[in-house]
Amino acid sequence: MKNRRLNPIKLGLKAAVIGVGSMGRHHARNYSQMREVELVGVSDTDEMAGQKAAGEFKTRFYKKYLEMLETENPHLVSLAAPTRLHHPIALDVIRRKIHLLIEKPITFNIDEAQEVIDEAKKHKIKLTVGHVERFNPAVIALKKLIRQGRLGTIISIMARRAGTIPNRIKDANVILDIGVHDIDLLSFILERRPINVFASGGRAILRKHEDYADIFLEYPHGKDGLKVTGHIQTNWLTPVKIRKLNVTGIKGYAVANLLTQELILFDTKYTHEFDDFEDFVGKFKESTGKKIKVILKEPLRVQLESFVDSVVNGKAPAVSPEEALWALRTAILATESIRIKSG
Asked: Which branch of life, at top level (predicted)?
């Protein structure tokens, strides 16, 4: 199949999904609802899950993904199989000149990721990775505030991503599975990559994989010469689901809830001078936050629409594979930091 620009409405852009577990089924759901594409098939080694998704989203099921690729000849594919399978499946898709979105992380290790990226360039296909939080309206609004200078120079950013152990986890630790979201987000928001990585964590419940971690990141100095630090707290031990970003600048402080898509801005009211203790308390009591308007959207839907747009109009994907490679590299460094200390 030759690469070509398409009018999806006139020609019918064909999409397929490989892996319809907890994440892949939502890719299938969204494709089935998008007027720009036709969901022509889903594939999964779990026949029950695959048949269920195919029935629910009115498409065809294939137990073998290669059969689906040959039979349906899709223009684009979402790959949501377990991480250890990303590399071989991605190469099979790319070598058929099919545009590809891989769920994060891009692959299991750096060498695999680099080969996938090189093959995508060789075959001139669009390759992107599912760092879906970039498409969260609260994140987009937060980045806009920062660019407008509402927070002033950023000095620190903290992300918390926690919850219980998901049943699907078999081949990745908490950093590679969910912490990598925030590793990518911090670079996306700060528009720079970390220069130092340090982490602390361990295995509280799981035997093979780290299930909690605190990751500390140091970023290059900004234009004002101030150091920027990042802190990511992630675990599978917290009984409630948490997805939050806290950003501190010299003029303000912002809190984003990525689950509810709420964003609150606090203006800094600090002054050096005070007359007495009551004046001191008054100057330092908590500021009243201002809720920033955010239009709620499903981040995955926005991400898939962006992917389709890049395929149709020949645009560069919103998340480049090189950025995904950097996120993977940082996640691996954080994991190594933990394991070196634990012996």
From this structure: Bacteria
CATH assignment at residue 118: 3.40.50.720
- Helices 110-123 and 86-94, interaxial angle, to 10°? 10
Same domain? 224 vs 247: yes
Inter-residue contact 83 to 168 (CB < 8 Å): no
> Is the residue at 315 inside a domain?
no
- Tokens 């299991």 appear where? 108
Domain that holds residue 189: 134-299+330-342
* pLDDT (tens digit per residue) in 276-301: 666 656 655 666 799 999 999 999 99
Domain end marker among 125, 144, 170: 125
- Residue 213 · residue 174 · CB < 8 Å: yes
pTM of the model: 0.91
CA 211 to chain centre: 19
